[in-house]
Amino acid sequence: MKKFLIITLIVLITGCGGKKVETETEKEPDKQPVEEKKELTLEDYKNNKVNELGEVPIMMYHGIHNKKNSDTEYTGGNVDKDGYQRTAEAFRNDLEFYYKEGYRMIRLTDYVDGNVDVELGKSPIILTFDDGLENSIKVTGLDSNGEIIIDPNSAVGILEEFKKKYPDYNVTATFFINGGIFGQEKYNEKILNWLVDHGYDVGNHTNTHVNFSTVNAARSEEEVGKVYKILDQIIPGKYVNIVALPFGSPYDLDHSNMPHIFSATYDGKTYETKSALRVGWKSESSPFSSDFNPKFLKRIRAYDNNGVEFDIEMNFKLLSNNRYISDGDKDTIVVPTTSKDKLGNTYNKKVIEY
Ligand SMILES: [Zn+2]
To answer: How far is the CA of 154 from the centre of ligand 1 (A)?
Structure first.
C-alpha cells in the first residue's frame, strides 16, 4: 500500500501518468491502477528503436474521389496523371497502411510547436488537404438537430470511419482553404465549425490560389489576409496560422514576397503566419532536429508511381531507416547517442541520451 502511494506520488509529481490513474487511485486506493506507468529503461529504448530525431512524414492530399482504383486509367489510386487527385479506395488503403506501419496521427500545429504525443515505439504522421475541395468534406444535408450530414466517401467521411475503427490512430488532419471555403455556400460556415469541433484544423491556402512568384507584395498580403479574415469571422481563434503555398511557390524562403506571407496588416487586421508549407517530395525533420525550420516545411505528395520519384511507397521505404520513433512521453526527447549532435530546439524538454 505504501509502495503504491509512493508510485502514485511520483506519477503526480512528474506528471507522466494519465489522468485516469489519478482518479482511480482516489476512488479505490486498494486496487492497482489499470494503466500504471512504469519507468522506461535504456533497454526499452533500444528494443523499440526510439529516436526522436528521426523524420516525420507530412502527407499532401488534394481531392478524394468516390472511385475504385480500377475506375481510373492512371497508376494505382491516381485519378489524374500526377496523382494530386486520389480514389477513395486508395485513400482507405493509405490509412490502413500508415496504421499497420506503426504511424499515429498528430496535428500539424502540434508538430510545429514540438508537441509530439504518440505511444512508445510508434511514429508520428501528419495529414494535409489543399484546395478546399467539395470532396474534402461533402455535405449531403442536415439532420434533425441541424448538424451536417457528411458523405462517407468524402475525405472527412473516410477519416471518421477510421476514427471509429482505430481509436488509437488519433485521427486528425489540416484542411487548407481558399476564399471559396469548401465550395458549399449553404454549409461552409457549419463545415468550418464542425471541423474545429471534431479535432481537425483549418489553415490558409490564399484567397484565389495565387502563385506568389507572379504577384507583388500588396497582392500577396491581400491573398493571405483575406483568408485569415474569413477564418476570423467564422472560427475566430480556432484556426491555424499556417499557409500552404499554392503550387509550392515561391520555392525559396528568401523570395521577396515571403515576409509578406509571414506577417502584415491587411484591411486593418495584423496576421502572423508561423509556417509555410511547400509542395515537397519527402519527409521532414523532427521538430527537435537542428535541420528543422518551421517556416518552410516539405510535404510528401500522396500518390502512386510504382515506388519511384518519391511516391508513397518510396518515401515509406526511406522512412524505415530514419523515422521518428517515440518514447511515449511528450515531455522528454529521447535520442540515440550516435545522432545527438543533430539536436536543435529542445522546447525546454528533458533530453535523454542512450
Ligand atoms: Zn492548391
So the answer is: 18
Q: Is the pLDDT of residue 108 over 70?
A: yes
Predicted confidence (pLDDT) per residue in 197-253, tens digit: 999 999 999 999 999 999 999 999 999 999 999 999 999 999 999 999 999 999 999
Q: Is residue 331 part of a domain?
A: no
Domain match, 164 and 260 both: yes
CA of 29 to the centre of ligand 1 (A): 55
For residues 35 and 177, membership in a common domain is answered with: no
Residue 345 has pLDDT above 70, yes or no: yes
State the distance from the centre of ligand 1 to the C-alpha of 177, rounded, in angstroms.
9
Dist. CA 30 → ligand 1 center (Å):
57
Q: For residues 83 and 137, what is the distance between their CA atoms, to the nearest angstrom?
A: 19
CB under 5 Å of ion ligand 1: residues? 130-131, 246
Lookup result for grid cell 507583388:
216
CA dihedral 232, 234, 238, 240 (to 10 degrees): -60
Q: What is the pTM of this model?
A: 0.89
- Tell me which residue range forms the domain holding 305: 54-320
Same domain, residue pair 125 and 12: no
Q: Phi, psi at residue 57, to the nearest 5°?
A: -80, 130
Using the mean position of ligand 1's atoms as its centre, give its distance from the Cα of residue 130 in Å.
5
Same domain? 130 vs 24 = no
Using CA atoms, how far apart are residues 275 and 271, in angstroms rounded to an integer? 12
**Residue 251 belongs to domain with CATH number:** 3.20.20.370
- For residue range 157-189, what is the model confidence (pLDDT) as tens digits? 999 999 999 999 999 999 999 999 999 999 999
